[in-house]
Design a protein that fits this description.
Elements (H helix, E strand, L loop, with lengths): L10 E4 L5 H14 L6 H12 L3 E3 L2 E2 L15 E13 L2 E10 L4 H13 L2 H9 L3 H7 L6
Length: 145
């Protein structure tokens, strides 16, 4: 277990996802494997997506659980998956799927850190061009600060 919000092992580069739902399950599975959430949290991530899209722009989607699933979060954490092939996210193209779990209101601070990175098109380009999950981790290091 780690106290990093985004641990190196929770960053992946994946060729493709068959669907938005598969991408959400992948992001959730990483959070479960990291010990950050209970498996039921993944279902709550899918529930939230059915009610409102978590696509944020610049190729980024940030699926997260419903408020009712807050008790399924063990610690605040992120999972980060970059897809080589864009995913159809309700008519938008997502290349980055960031699963988020936040204790209390911590998710708001974590979201703001991610938003700062993704508001800069040069930073997004660097994330797209990164050759490894280690390089992605270095580019995303400020989310742990």
């Amino acid at each position: 277990m780690t106290d990093q919000i985004l641990a190196p092992g929770d960053i992946r580069i994946v060729a493709a996802a068959a669907s938005r739902e598969d991408a959400i399950r992948e992001a959730g599975r990483i959070l479960v494997e990291a010990g950050a959430v209970e498996p039921e949290y993944v279902g709550a991530m899918l529930d939230r997506e059915r009610s409102v899209s978590t696509f944020m722009g610049n190729g980024l989607a940030i699926p997260h659980g419903t408020n009712e699933a807050k008790d399924r979060i063990r610690r605040s954490a992120l999972s980060f998956v970059r897809y080589e092939e864009p995913i159809d996210w309700g008519g938008e193209e997502a290349r980055f799927v960031v699963g988020i779990a936040g204790i209390g209101d911590e998710h708001l601070e974590i979201l703001s850190r991610i938003a700062v990175i993704f508001s800069d098109e040069d930073e997004v380009r660097k994330l797209l061009d990164a050759d490894s999950s280690d390089e992605l981790g270095r580019l995303l290091s400020e989310v742990n600060e």
